[in-house]
Amino acid sequence: MRKRIFFYFTFDTVSKGNWSFALFSLSDKLCYNSAYPCEHRGEKMARQLTDMAENKLSILYYISCLDIPLTNSQITEFFLEKDLMNYFDLQQYLSELVNSEHLNYLEARNIHFYSITPRGLETLAFFKERISKPLRESIEEYAQANQNRFKKE
């Protein structure tokens, strides 16, 4: 049996002062498998991490473009309507963004809202360009077209 060795990526966040960075680093763990080359799994994992980062950034960008607290359904409507991610991934990302203090989860009149935090805005300032230009433009158009409607809801 021929062994293939591949170092895979791990994901960490690092804070320095008021700044928080997402880091991808190589792990010292080894992967052995002769039936399915580890390079393919490594490429797939790297792509999944990239997709996850872009999805989280797009959520932050969407909320910042609307510049108002949004309900879960107002966020979900856009991402499902545009077929950008599935419902379960979106809910997971929202939870992780709240836990990492990039989003606030607020309650007013028995309605829950998400709003972007200063930490979320700082992250966007650094990494906004990692969101594809067509996606940024789609978010901006949707935000402009729906902001007044969302304010009334």
How would you characterize this protein structure?
With 153 residues, the protein is an alpha+beta fold. The chain contains 5 helices and 4 strands. The protein has helices at 38-66, 72-81, 87-99, 118-127, 133-152; strands at residues 9-16, 19-26, 103-108, 111-116. The strands form 2 sheets. The protein has a two-stranded antiparallel sheet with strand order 1-2. It has a two-stranded antiparallel sheet with strand order 3-4. A hairpin with a 2-residue loop joins strand 3 (103-108) and strand 4. It starts with 8 loop residues before the first strand and ends with a helix.
- Average per-residue pLDDT, rounded, comes to 77
Termini Cα gap: 62 Å
Into which percent range does the helicity of residues fall? 40-55%
Number of strands: 4
Strand order across the largest sheet? 1-2
Name the beta content range.
15-25%
Quick overview of this protein structure:
Helix content is 54%, strand content 18%.
